[in-house]
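We now fix the convention by which a protein and its fold are recorded. These numbers are not coordinates but entries in a learned vocabulary of local backbone shapes. A record is reproduced here so that you can trace the correspondence yourselves:
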Amino acid sequence: MAFKKDSKSKRDDAISVALDSATEATPLLVSPVAVASGSGTPSAGNGESSEESLPKLQIFLLCYARLVEPIAFFSIFPYINNMVQKNGNLKEEDVGFYAGMIESFFSLTQMVVMMFWGRAADRCGRRPVLVSSLLGVAISVSLFGLAQSIWQMIALRCIAGAFAGTVVTIRTMIAEHSTPRNQAHAFSWFAFAGNVGMFLGPLVGGALEDPAHQYPWAFGGVPFFEKYPYALPSIVAGCIGLSAMAICALFIKETLKSRNTQGANSSGGEAGTTTKPAPPSTLELIKSRGVGMVLYIYGHSMILGYAYTTVIPVFWYTSVKLGGLGFVPSEISFCMGLTGLSQAVWLLFAFPALQRRYGTNGVIRGCGIAYPFFIGAMPFLNLILYQGTPVSHTAFLILLFTLLTIGLGVSMAFTAALLALTDVSPSPETLGTLNAIALTIASGLRSFSPMLFNSLFALSAKYQLLWGYFIWFIVVILASAFTVATRYLPAASEKTHDPPAGQAEDNN
């Protein structure tokens, strides 16, 4: 694939800088292709191996730090309703409103401060922002279990949301540790770490809440845990954040500094003697070539993801006659486990190979084509199960298994959108700000999506709108619009392969 001269030069500079900084003092994960060919770390620009090496230790540590935000967000889910009712002396019917408000404030606060952290990461460096964010999240999460009123709970969740620099900085640093050839592997591990955090968070909260009654042999009669039944899961979640903060402070390499220094040296001057141009404003960045469209694709993929993850547990639980599947808790747990396993397989094994073969845009467009069919199959699960015959039950199991394994390949759209954002960034120095814009969009969508889509599902089931399938009709429309939008992805987000050796010179 041929690129224009200016974009190719920018890409080649970024590749050489990333390779130089990665090989200074960090262990490298050598690709299987390189090992098979008898080569070690490939040389940049030679086109001799299919993939440059990743700094294994740095990516692993960043992925560990990635666990903190989803654990902090999801760990309170198992006990938030009980805690709200206890602290507010509320009636049962009022609990849902306040619990939802607390979670909405977390995401809304993230949305407000995300740009600040992105700008800070671009100006002050990645590691200081990451370390300070992890410290703030760890402290606020640890104190959450000690809250004795609803307003204290809201305040502490807002503080946790205010330290939202973790994800934006980690995403930026992983992008700077990778190249267009190996970034699919790097971001697949980033996405996998986020899914692991989403899985561990509820486990921490559910297993450790109210330990005095859950584990009386160990915590019974301890005054602290009798008075603060939700302190233990909060403290454990906070300690995970503190451990990540200490690891990042000690072992994480600063990626922005190495890039600026390399850029100064390559221009013939001494490090620190060049004057960096003023960073573009947020509006100027959004108006940059291809950025606005990729941001839209990213936001559209996120709203589809939120819609599915919000509705699907309620859909599994709701009775067949109301448009659901009528699953018992054990069946729901099995489906959730299969979902997590399937997404992990797609992300870790299928996505890197597909991205190398078809490019980032190709993966997004493929997911866009599949999405309406994936969502549109949900009503058929209910319709088949509603027949109540042995044949229909067998057909139901086959379709369900297919959707929860093959169908979940559409989840690659989220990771591919991250790669597109990285590639479309006008320069490495604006990558933190661009990631902040994207996460601001995601936080805003997450603040209202659960309430919106759960309400639509409730209306569909209660009033049997379109035989109870109205919610899926709405989401299929959203998915179809996503399919159309992917056709307009810019070429700037397609930096997936270097040109073959010999062709690079021709393109110059």
Observations:
- The CA atoms of residues 170 and 311 lie 29 Å apart.
- Residues 1-51, 259-273, 496-508 have pLDDT under 50 and may be disordered.
- The chain is about 75% helix and 0% strand.
